[in-house]
Design goal:
Strand order of the largest sheet: 3-2-1-4-5-7-6
CATH topology: Rossmann fold
Number of strands: 7
Shape: globular
Order of helices and strands: EHEHHEHEHEEHHHE
Strand content: 15-25%
Structural class: alpha/beta
CATH superfamily: LmbE-like
CATH class: Alpha Beta
């Protein structure tokens, strides 16, 4: 049985930078929730994610994650509230912390590669190709900063 995973991405491209290996796992059925405050161009670009990951389901959220999404998924991947610096990432991370405290299976991911729980990405060439193809407007970010394609980090908190 496939694991039903929910990836919360405050901005389109966060899901690939922080969770490419999750997206690339054929044993996971994935829904991605994107932030409503992302610019229009990046929201349009995000629709191309199905070219690389055809089974991914996309949604745009507004102020909160619907309860049904939380209840209908086995694992929730959400930004780390401590190590992330962008306010939207931190805000969703704190929401994820509450979900974890409420007993949900939450895994925190990062788009910052200076955390102690990073590891080398299994296929950085494919990850960079996906980022280039899906998010050309953001290409300069990983063109010179290879940390975004070389590493990923996820952790589970223990309460």
């Amino acid at each position: 049985m496939s694991e039903k995973s929910l990836i919360v991405a405050p901005h389109p491209d966060d899901e690939i930078i922080g969770c490419f290996e999750i997206l690339n796992d054929p044993d996971k059925k994935i829904t991605i929730l994107y932030g409503a405050d992302a610019d229009v161009e990046r929201k349009k670009e995000a629709q191309k994610i199905r070219e690389f990951f055809p089974t991914v389901h996309l949604q745009i959220y507004h102020m909160s994650i619907p309860t049904t999404y939380v209840q209908n998924h086995d694992v929730i991947y959400i930004p780390d509230p401590v190590n992330e610096v962008h306010p939207a990432h931190r805000a969703w991370g704190f929401f994820g912390e509450q979900l974890a405290r409420d007993g949900h299976n939450v895994v925190f991911y990062t788009t910052k590669m200076n955390v102690p729980y990073i590891h080398e990405c299994k296929d950085p060439t494919k990850k960079e190709a996906a980022l280039d193809r899906i998010y050309p407007s953001q290409k300069d970010m990983w063109k010179y900063e290879k940390q975004y394609v070389l590493f990923e980090g996820r952790c589970k908190w223990i309460f």
